[in-house]
Design goal:
Pathway: Pyrimidine metabolism; dUMP biosynthesis; dUMP from dCTP (dUTP route): step 2/2
Oligomer: single chain
Pfam family, one: dUTPase
Distance between the termini: 41 Å
GO molecular function: dUTP diphosphatase activity; magnesium ion binding
Largest sheet: 5 strands, antiparallel
CATH superfamily: Deoxyuridine triphosphatase (dUTPase)
Strand content: 35-45%
Number of strands: 11
Bound molecules: deoxyuridine-5'-triphosphate
Keywords: Hydrolase, Magnesium, Metal-binding, Nucleotide metabolism
Low-confidence stretches: none
Family: Belongs to the dUTPase family.
């Protein structure tokens, strides 16, 4: 279990609006809640930026956070993320925002404190490029997009 530093920017966090956390011991994602002043109606096709009320500094370049939709909201109501997936860099220190897109056909109202997305902490490997003329192992070759015989 890693410890990450957060700053509470909205005084309601940890009181009226629970802090992000894992719903069960086996949950991969922490639910993120909407730190809205009032319920917000998202019209079909619209995208809104919703504050979470806290800033996160991951710090360790070997980690990142990925924001994903909640399955139920996405499947039943068409509420997904405007950027499809949010990526939080380890050196980001600002407030976390969730871009929420109503891809459904009906308006959807986000309530104050509602769980709108989930955040997964993931390991990251950084790489740099070495420019070569030939790859050391050229066994597979450059065929792609269906060249392995399965379409
Ligand atoms: O759903 C998201 C995605 C990103 N971020 C924050 C954290 C991330 O580290 C920063 C920059 O995100 P990204 O690199 O994806 O944005 P960009 O469009 O490439 O812009 P820039 O890096 O120039 O800010 O914005 C969020 O709060 N929510």
């Amino acid at each position: 279990m890693h410890t990450l530093q957060i700053k509470l920017l909205d005084p309601r966090l940890g009181r009226d609006i629970p802090l992000p956390g894992y719903a069960t011991a086996g949950s991969a994602g922490m639910d993120l809640r909407a730190a809205l002043e009032a319920p917000l109606c998202i019209e079909p096709g619209a995208t809104v930026l919703i504050p979470t009320g806290f800033a996160l500094h991951i710090g360790d370049p070997g980690l990142a956070a990925v924001l994903l939709p909640r399955s139920g909201l996405g499947h039943k109501h068409g509420i997904v993320l405007g950027n499809l997936v949010g990526l939080i860099d380890s050196d980001y220190q600002g407030q976390l925002f969730v871009s929420v897109w109503n891809r459904g056909r009906e308006a959807f109202t986000v309530e104050v404190g509602e769980r709108i997305a989930q955040m997964v902490i993931v390991p990251v490997v950084q790489a740099h490029f070495e420019i070569v003329d030939e790859f050391a192992d050229s066994a597979r070759g450059s065929g792609g997009f269906g060249h392995s015989g399965r379409h």
